[in-house]
Amino acid sequence: MRCPYCSHNETQVIDTRDTENLESTRRRRGCLKCHKRFTTYERVEEADVIVVKKGGKRERFERQKLINGILKACEKRPISLEKIEKLVDEVESDLRKRDSVEVDSKTIGRITMRKLKSLDKVAYIRFASVYMEFEDLARFEEELEKLQKK
Length: 150
Prior knowledge:
Elements: E1 11-18, E2 24-31, E3 37-43, E4 50-52, E5 58-60, H1 63-73, H2 81-96, E6 102-104, H3 105-119, H4 121-131, H5 137-149
Parallel strand pairs: 4-6
Antiparallel strand pairs: 1-2, 2-3, 4-5
């Protein structure tokens, strides 16, 4: 494994753990040259999930795109990267359990929103405002009221 800091090819595994859902292995590594530490994740390579976009365009599911969207929603919130990674693991797992390898982007958004709602209400409403494309303040307030009632 190449060190992301100094690009040295020799690293040492310090700690290995399975993630909670047992779908990936987390390895803590240390570089033998610069001695910095970093984390890698090992996952089983499965058939690609194909995302069907609003306009009908199809593309491979990119985990990093979902992480980036959630990171934006969680900006300045007390949510660790580990919790975000776990949430994305759960979303990806849900997608892979479906009967079809094709899934529309709306479904991914709904699954993500449901999981964000239980993690952090502010992050949920931020994500929802982009995903649901609120056209005006009234629609935004409507969603806030629903959230407050629950």
